[in-house]
Design brief:
CATH architecture of the largest domain: 3-Layer(aba) Sandwich
CATH class of the largest domain: Alpha Beta
CATH topology of the largest domain: Rossmann fold
Order of helices and strands: EHEHEHEHEHEHHEHHHHHH
Number of strands: 7
CATH superfamily of the largest domain: NAD(P)-binding Rossmann-like Domain
Helix content: 40-55%
Strand content: 5-15%
Oligomer: single chain
Structural class: alpha/beta
Strand order of the largest sheet: 2-1-3-4-5-6-7
Largest sheet: 7 strands, mixed
C-alpha cells in the first residue's frame, strides 16, 4: 500500500527502508533535505492518493505541532498514525480534534531501535478496529516474522500506554544488568567480567536482547572506560511511575531504576552530603572534605 511518513531519523528512516523492501510505496518527509523525498508536508500530501495514511515519527515535543500542520493539508477519510513516544493522555484530545475534520487517528508504540530495519519492530496499537485493519499490511511488514510483535492493545491511547509500560520495564531490566555488572567488576575472584556476561547469553534464564547488547558494548570497550555514567530519561519511565502512583500499584524496581538515572547526573549529590553530615553529627563518623 501507499504510506506517507513524516520524520526520517534513526527510527523513521529505517522504517521507510523496511516497508520499501516489503514492496510498499513510502513517501517520506523530513526537515533534512538530504533524506527527504519531498520538500514540504504539502508536497507529501499532494503525492498521496486519497484516502491517505500518514505516519508521524517525530519527537514527542514537536508531535502536536507536526500533526496540526499536517492536518491543514488532509481531508475527510484520511488517517494519521503517531508512532512517536507521545504521552498516552495526549492521544484522545488529538483524535477528537482530527475527528472534527473527519480524519482518523491511531497511536502506535514502536520498539526496536536501530535494529528494527533488520529484525522488525514490536508494535503496540491503539485505535478503532477499522483503522487497524486498514493499516494491517503496513503493520505486517514492520513487525518481525511470526506470531509475536504486534497487538491491538485497545482504543486510542492504548498503544502509547503499552509502550510507556514497556519502557518502564526496560528501565528496570537495564538497571538489574547494570548492578550485576558492577558487582562483577568489584569482585576479587572474577577475572573475566565480559566472559561471564557472554556465558549468560545462551541457556541462562537471564538471557535477553538487552544482555546481548551489553555484551556487544563490552566487546567494543571491555571496561566501558570511554563512557560517562550520566544517563538521560526520555519520559516514559516517569509517566509509568506516575501511573503507578495514580493506580496505587507498587512499582519498587522501576521507580528505583528511574531515580538511579537522576543520581547519575549529580557530580556531588546534595542528598548524600546531607547523609554524611548527619552521620557525623549523631555518631561522630568521619567525613571526607572536598579538596
Amino acid at each position: 500500500m501507499q504510506l506517507g511518513l513524516v520524520g526520517l531519523g534513526r527510527m523513521g528512516g529505517n522504517m521507510r527502508g523496511r516497508l520499501r523492501t516489503a514492496g510498499h510505496e513510502v513517501i517520506g518527509y523530513d526537515r533534512n533535505p538530504d533524506v527527504s523525498d519531498v520538500a514540504s508536508l504539502a508536497d507529501l500530501v499532494e503525492r498521496l492518493a486519497p484516502p491517505r495514511a500518514v505516519w508521524v515519527m517525530v519527537p514527542a515535543a514537536v508531535t502536536d505541532a507536526a500533526i496540526e500542520e499536517l492536518a491543514t493539508h488532509l481531508a475527510e477519510g484520511d488517517l494519521v498514525i503517531d508512532g512517536g513516544n507521545s504521552r498516552f493522555s495526549d492521544d484522545p484530545p488529538r483524535a477528537e480534534r482530527l475527528g472534527r475534520q473527519g480524519i482518523g487517528y491511531m497511536d502506535v508504540g514502536v520498539s526496536g531501535g536501530v535494529w528494527g530495519l533488520e529484525n522488525g519492530y514490536a508494535l503496540m496499537v491503539g485505535g478503532d478496529a477499522e483503522h487497524v485493519a486498514r493499516l494491517e499490511p503496513v503493520f505486517e511488514a514492520l513487525k518481525p516474522q511470526g506470531q509475536f510483535g504486534f497487538v491491538h492493545a485497545g482504543p486510542v491511547g492504548a498503544g502509547h500506554y503499552a509502550k510507556m509500560v514497556h519502557n518502564g520495564i526496560e528501565y528496570g531490566l537495564m538497571h538489574a544488568y547494570a548492578e550485576g555488572y558492577e558487582l562483577l567488576t568489584k569482585s576479587e575472584i572474577i577475572t573475566d567480567v565480559p566472559g561471564v556476561i557472554k556465558s549468560w547469553r545462551d541457556g541462562s534464564v537471564v538471557e535477553s536482547w538487552l544482555l546481548d547488547l551489553l555484551d556487544r558494548a563490552l566487546d567494543d570497550d571491555p571496561d566501558l572506560a570511554n563512557l560517562s555514567g550520566y544517563t538521560e530519561d526520555t519520559g516514559e519511565g516517569r509517566w509509568t511511575v506516575e501511573e503507578a502512583i495514580r493506580l496505587a500499584v507498587p512499582m519498587n524496581v522501576i521507580a528505583a531504576s528511574l531515580f538511579a538515572r537522576f543520581v547519575s547526573r549529580q557530580d556531588d549529590s546534595p542528598a548524600m552530603k546531607a547523609v554524611a553530615a548527619l552521620r557525623q553529627q549523631f555518631g561522630g563518623h568521619a567525613v571526607r572534605k572536598r579538596p
